[in-house]
Amino acid sequence: MTLIVAVGYQNGVVLGAESAATDLQSAIKQPVAKIKCIAGQPLLFACSGDGSVIQHIEDALDGFQTLATIKETRQALKGLLLPVLQQDYANHIGIQGKPAPLTTTLFAGVCGDYPFILEIDEQGSDTVYGDGLGAFTAIGSGKILAQALFSPHLKAGNLRSAAEAKALAYRVVDDSIKLAAMFLAPPICLHCVEVGRGTIPCVAAELQAIGDTCEVWREMEREVFSQALTRAEGASAPAPEAPPAPPEAANEAAPHGEATAAD
């Protein structure tokens, strides 16, 4: 079980991942590094699915070189992965009660001056998550949690700073770990790829600082939510009723020429 997220920003992409590898039969998990680099290339990838298929995908990607355009790189990556998926699925012996070796791969990379997010799913379908799709996606068993948590923050990647993207990726993974009943676990890993800089891992000190930022963010959310409730309650409170008019004085002077009751 896995959660990998990709968040685009002005000149790059950050991949975020939790670190649990789980044996479904024994329900035992152990830490594993899920984000991989391709040596000398501005390209990161991570997989969700069957361990043996993931190893075969890693072998197929060894030595891969990005091409001039996202379209060409996308086609080349799909051309590499489809035969791997087809062969592994064909060689799978189906046993009742055991899952098929379905595997999805998420890429973050740069072609020229353009960062990109590419998913090749378990059926071989390839999708680029650009600005029109919020420059965000997630794969793995925690995907639905990540999508729900990230939905308020969908926007074009060129409207996000690197710091914002890292905080979003970290918090979405962290909150998903806390929400999931099982199979997701720390530590959280972040790895960036940027135009002109290539791949850049987030080291422990930076991850700690991002985690601290997320705690401040949560506290501010609670405070703003409380303020919003107070304001809403004040706006919806019924307006006070006007006080009743004072009764007329019993001995109010009668009109000129008329006698009063006491006369």
Description:
With 263 residues, this protein is an alpha+beta fold. The protein has one domain: Glutamine Phosphoribosylpyrophosphate, subunit 1, domain 1, CATH 3.60.20.10. The protein is 35% helix and 23% strand. It contains five helices and twelve strands. The strands form three sheets. It has a five-stranded antiparallel sheet, covered by helices on one side. α4 (162-179) crosses α5. It is elongated. The relative contact order is 0.18. Mean pLDDT is 90; it is low at 259-263.
What are the defining features of this structure?
single chain; 263 residues; alpha+beta; Glutamine Phosphoribosylpyrophosphate, subunit 1, domain 1; five-stranded antiparallel sheet; 23% strand; disordered C terminus
Largest sheet: 5 strands, antiparallel
- Please tell me the total number of domains: 1
DSSP helical segment count: 5
The amount of beta strand, in percent, is: 15-25%
CATH architecture: 4-Layer Sandwich
* Class of secondary structure makeup: alpha+beta
Radius of gyration, Cα only, in angstroms? Answer: 30 Å
In short:
With 263 residues, the chain is of the alpha+beta class. The protein has helices at residues 51-61, 70-90, 143-150, 162-179, 204-236, and strands at residues 4-9, 12-17, 20-23, 28-31, 36-37, 43-48, 104-111, 114-120, 126-128, 136-139, 189-194, 198-201.
Topology record:
Layout: E1 4-9, E2 12-17, E3 20-23, E4 28-31, E5 36-37, E6 43-48, H1 51-61, H2 70-90, E7 104-111, E8 114-120, E9 126-128, E10 136-139, H3 143-150, H4 162-179, E11 189-194, E12 198-201, H5 204-236
Helix pairs in contact: 1-2, 3-4, 4-5
